[in-house]
Amino acid sequence: MKYQAIIVEDEQLNRDFLLNLLQEFCPHIEVVATAASVNEAVAAIRAHDPQIIFLDIELQTATGFDVLELVRDTKFEIIFTTAYDHYAIKAIRFSAIDYLLKPINYEELTRAVSKAIESLKVKQQDDRLELLMRNVRIPSGDDFSISLSTAEGIEYIPLQQISYLEAKGPYTTFFLKSGNHMIVCKHLKEYEMMLTEHGFFRLHNSYMVNMKEVKKMIRADGGYAVMNNDAMIAISPRKKDEFLQLMSRRLV
Q1: Could you name the CATH architecture of 3-136?
Q2: pLDDT higher for 241 or 90?
Q3: Domain residue spans in the chain?
């Protein structure tokens, strides 16, 4: 089965390069149109109703998000492309939407395409795009929400609702302020990379805490962080000094 795709990229060389990669390594993808601007992209999407869009974040004087604002009623899988670590990459990661850094690697491309096709096959109906657009509008990231895929489905959790995370092998458990918890099949390290800039701190190999949810620190027995829900989490000796510094700087 062929899946129709559109490439939105303002540089001719990059468009041709991606097109050639898709033709060589993704024969099940049929590129039905290319676009170099927001207007061209919107027209192509409305004309072809593609299943996959390869969308450059920076488009001359506009962005790929301007395209999405104008075609929100259309269902498709998005694979972003960007030449550098764009500020929006953070929002994209939180929304669990794929992106490719240029120059695009064919192995990363085939993986992203495979994931997009898998989502299309199961007709995955979720709010990843809504979550992404909401997060993009919040440059500070203070009110970010994160996409969590559990055995029951996909849920979108505001960061401020997370108390702490616990690692158990390849799984991570999210403990929420509500008292509920969610188990996700991802290593804690992946979430450490996303959450550290948002007030979370990995104080132990198995735990990462929302610093705003730390009620106090107990120095006995090596040190513990006491959370607002009264959970007691051991502090790794090598993390103690950094944790104390963060506690001393905390304003709330």
Answers
A1: 3-Layer(aba) Sandwich (3.40)
A2: 241
A3: 3-136, 161-249
